Amino acid sequence: MDEQNKINVDETVENEDSVVSEETQADETPTPIKAHIDKKLRIFDVVYLAICSLFMLVMWCTGYNFLPLVANIFAIVAGVLIFARVLTKKNVGLYMWIAYMVCICGLFVFFLIWGAESFGKNLWYNLVLVLFPVLLATLVYVANRFINKQKALRITCAVCAFLMVGTAIVYVFFMNLRCRPTAKSLQEGHDDYLKSVADKYKTGDDSPNVLFILMDDMAYSDISAYSYLGSANATINTPNIDSIADGGIMMDNFYSASPVCSPSRFSILTGRYSSRGYLDNVVFPSDIQSNPWSPTHFLNPYQFLNNVDGILGDEITFAEVLQRAGYSTGCIGKWNLGDYGQYLPTNQGFDYFYGSYYVNDMTPYNWVEDYVDEDGNFHSQEVRTHKENLDQSESTRLLTAQMINFISSSVENDEKFLAYYTTPWPHFPIYSDNNGNGKGDTNDDTYIDCIEEFDRYLGDILNYLKTHKKGGEECAVGDADNLYDNTLIIFTSDNGPGREGVTGDMRGRKNTTFEGGMKVPILASYPNGNLGKGTAIDSVNYNYYPWTNNNVATSRDNVASKVKSSATTGTTKHIDASSMNFDLFNTILRYCGITNADGSVYLPSDRIIDGADLYDLWQASVPTSTRVHDKLFYLKKGKCQAVQMAVDVDGVVYDFKYFDKVRTENSAFIDQVYKNYLFNLDTDPAEGYSVSKDLPWVAEKLNAELKAFRKEMKTNRRGIL
Hints:
Radius of gyration: 32 Å
CATH superfamily of the largest domain: Alkaline Phosphatase, subunit A
Strand order of the largest sheet: 7-6-5-4-8-1-9-10-2-11
Number of helices: 20
Strand content: 5-15%
CATH topology of the largest domain: Alkaline Phosphatase, subunit A
Mean pLDDT: 77
Oligomer: single chain
Number of strands: 16
Distance between the termini: 104 Å
CATH architecture of the largest domain: 3-Layer(aba) Sandwich
Largest sheet: 10 strands, mixed
C-alpha cells in the first residue's frame, strides 16, 4: 500500500513538473510582437557597437580627445541598456557583451587616463589599454563557462554597467582636480629678492616707461612689416604696428616658449620655461571645478594635463620687480594665468587689471576690474557679463580706452608706468567693429578687419604717447620729453596662429612645436635708449624666404625687392639671432635699470632664469647674427619635444632642429605615428625633409642634449639653485 502510494505520488510530481515545464515553455515561446522587439534590440546592439567602435578607432588613430560629452553619453546609454537587459531577464548574448566591454572600457580607460595621447605612443600604454578590457572579457567568459551562465552573466553585466556609468560620472565631477606641486617652495627667495629691489632701485627720469603689447595667436606673417620675408599676408595693412620698428628692431627668428597661450605667458612674465612653474598647458576657468555642468567643463579635454590652476605665487614676474622699483603697473585684456587667490594679476605685480581672466572662447567669459588701494585692500567688480560679451566686436575699443586711461592716470600722478596690453585678438572667435569705423580695407574678411582694427586703435595709444609729456601735459609730436621717446615699446605674440592667420612656408600651427606654431613676430622701440635708432638693415635672414625647388640662389635674388617693400626699410635693425620670449624678462629689467654694478641684470639667486639678456644685441653691441642661446628647447604639455642648436658640418655652421618622438600635425590616419626628425633650418625652413639618416651623428648629438635637459627638468623642475 505504502509502495503503491509512493508510486502514485511520484507520478503526480512528474505530471506536475511536466505541466510546469510546458507552461514555462509556453511562456518562453516568443509572440510575434515580442520577437519583433527582440529583433529590433539586436539591430540596435549591432548599430550601437559599430558607432562606439568607430568612435574609439578615430580617437586612437588621430589622438584627438574630442567630444567628451558624446563619449559620456555613449557610456551612460550603454549602461542603461545593460541594466534594462538584466532587469527584464533577457538572454543577453555573451559575445555581444564582451564586445560592449572591449569597446566601452577600452575607450574610457584611454580617454580618462591618457587624455587623447596617441594609441601608439608607448608600449606599456598599449598593453594597459588592451589588457584592461581583455581582462574583463575573460572574466565574463570564465563566469559563463564554469558558473550558472545566466546568473553569472547578469551579475557581470550589471557590474560592467555600473563601471561604465560610474566612469562617466567620475569624469564629469573630477576631471579638473589637479595635483599640487610638492617641490620646495621658492617663496622665501621671492620675498627676499623683491625686498632688495625695493631697497636698491627706484625709478628716475632716466627710467623708461614700458608698453608691452601681446597679441593672441598672431603669426609674423600677419603683420605688413614682415613683408620682406616674402610670405606675409599682403592683404593686411598694419602701419601703426609697423611704426614701432621704425628706428627700432625686428627679429626674424623669435620664438614662443610654448605653442599655447598660458605657458607662453608664464615664460614672458618670469623668464623661465613654463614647466618650472608646473604650468604645462592652458589654464581653464575654476568655475568648472565647482560647477560640473559648466559648458567649459564638458568641452575641456586637457585639464588632466595641468598640475596647477595658474602661475604660482612664489614665481617672480617682471611686473612685481618694476612694481617694487616704483612703477605703476597695469594689465589690460586677457590674463589666462588663473582666476583666484595667488594666481590673480593683482597678486603677480599689477596694481590694476581690467579685462578677462580667461580666453574669449571660454565660458563664462566675464570682464572684471581689479585693483589694490593705497592701504593694500583688494577690490574687484564685474564690468561686463558673459551675456554682454557674446558679441565681442567692441572689445578693442573698450580695452584700448581703458589702457589710455591707465597710462594717463599714471603720467598725471608723475609715475613711470608698465602698461601690459594683452589683447584677445586675433584668437578665435574673431570679431571686428560693425559700425564701420573699425573695418579694414576688405570689409568682408573678419580676420583681416580684426587685425587692422586693432592696428588703428593701437595708433590712438601711440598718438597719446607722442602728444603728451611727463605730468600729462600736452605737446606737439616730436617735442622733447614726449612720452613716446622715453617708452620701451615691445610688440609680440604668444604663439603661432590658430584657426586663421598665415604661417608662410612654415610647417605647423598653434599647438605644434614646428616652426609655424612657435615662431612669432617681435618689434621693439625706445628712441631715448638708442634701441636700433638710425641703424640701416645690417643683417637679413635668408632662411625664411619662399623656396623654389630649394634653390637658395633664386631666393636670395629676391631679397632686395622684398626688403624694399618693408615699411621699416632704412631705419630698422633686422636681427636674425634665435631667441625666445622668455628672454624679455631679463631684457626689460636691464632697460629699466635693475642691474648690478657691472651693468648685468640683477636676478634672483635662488632659481634658474632660463632667459637671456637681449640688451647688447638690440643695442648692436654684438653682431646681430650671434646666437642668444647655444640651445633652444621646445616644450609642449610639459614635455620637451625638440631642441634647436648650431652644429658645424664640414666647416659650415648650420642651425639644426631635432624632434624626439613627436606626432605630425597632419590628421590623416597613416601619418599619426610618433617619429624622430632632424631638420636643417638653413636649407629647409619649411621642415619638409628630415636629414636624420644623412647626418646620424648630428641627430645623436642633439638627442643627447634633449635627454640631458629632460633629466634636468625631471630632477629639478623648479630650477632651484
